[in-house]
């Protein structure tokens, strides 16, 4: 069963959870063959009831000690743009769609998503463009992320945060 795993990390990103469980987003996922949706909702106030989604197998949780198994079982990971979540998803070798929270002030997440997209490691969008991105995305253009380059990543983060 093709699975999408959605993670917001330790934060609250209700807009992402609401958008990914909208009728149009679910229709786009279903069209692409995804039948199972696993949501890690973090501290958010939106907690979808699986019984309200009869056309998709829906699993919802707030936190686990590790989400590595969820990522391993996923065919597509949709994540907030936090550096830790991005690196964990890329390290799992899965197709990654990052949803940038454009409501954040001084949004370094957008810079990270743009750079990793420029390097062809992920696709990115915002909540208002998520459904259209799901409809039009081409995951075949993504290139594997080569882990083990912490210095390169640290330098990028320093630059993005204005520390260099």
Automatic annotation (TrEMBL):
Domain of life: Eukaryota
Coiled-coil boundaries: none
This enzyme's EC code(s): 2.4.1.141
Record keywords, A-Z: Endoplasmic reticulum, Glycosyltransferase, Transferase
Gene Ontology biological process: dolichol-linked oligosaccharide biosynthetic process
Tagged with keyword Glycosyltransferase: yes
GO CC annotation, single: endoplasmic reticulum
Domain Glycosyl transferase family 28 C-terminal: 3-144
Gene Ontology MF, one: N-acetylglucosaminyldiphosphodolichol N-acetylglucosaminyltransferase activity
Subcellular location: Endoplasmic reticulum
Annotated family: Belongs to the glycosyltransferase 28 family.
Protein name: UDP-N-acetylglucosamine transferase subunit ALG13
Organism per entry: Hippocampus comes (Tiger tail seahorse)
